């Protein structure tokens, strides 16, 4: 089911091996022939817990499916991303067919839906002392805006190596 916040159904498309399904407008992240629902199943998780839940939408995107044999990952995720470290690594290391801005935006959406596990990862797994938890919301907003927060760069190897997403405060 598509909510009002997502592109409306514009027509029908048939790809080889797929049945006739309504498709989303061309600027959509979901490829024709895939499930038109662009949300990740499961309720948003705001309670402080270790694991979250997110189905990678980039693994179903038109760009990814049309990237051919050189795409990374070589096959779409078979299982939902649950561990926050794996979720972050998935978007920062993989999906190079997408721009860094698109990858950060998707990661921001995933972490917004899994705010509790993200807070758990920051405070307990990575032992970050966060005085004001609103900084977590700032990280999520910055990611959804298409850039990687500077504070996250030293927390994972993938974040350290991530290209072209340096925030304005870093460009001095």
UniProtKB/TrEMBL annotation:
Q: What is this protein called?
A: Uncharacterized protein
Native organism taxonomy: Eukaryota, Fungi, Dikarya, Ascomycota, Pezizomycotina
């Amino acid at each position: 089911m598509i909510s009002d916040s997502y592109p409306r159904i514009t027509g029908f498309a048939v790809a080889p091996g797929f049945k006739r399904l309504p498709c989303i407008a061309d600027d959509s992240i979901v490829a024709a022939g895939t499930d038109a629902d662009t949300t990740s199943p499961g309720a948003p998780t705001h309670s402080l817990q270790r694991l979250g839940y997110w189905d990678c939408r980039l693994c179903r995107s038109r760009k990814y499916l049309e990237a051919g044999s050189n795409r990374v990952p070589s096959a779409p995720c078979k299982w939902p991303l649950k561990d926050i470290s794996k979720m972050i690594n998935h978007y920062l290391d993989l999906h190079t067919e997408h721009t860094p801005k698109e990858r950060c935006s998707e990661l921001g959406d995933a972490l917004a839906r899994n705010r509790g596990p993200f807070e758990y990862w920051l405070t307990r797994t990575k032992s970050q002392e966060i005085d004001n938890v609103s900084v977590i919301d700032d990280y999520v907003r910055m990611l959804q805006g298409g850039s990687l927060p500077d504070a996250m760069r030293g927390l994972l190897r993938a974040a350290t190596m991530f290209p072209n997403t340096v925030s304005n405060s870093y460009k001095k």
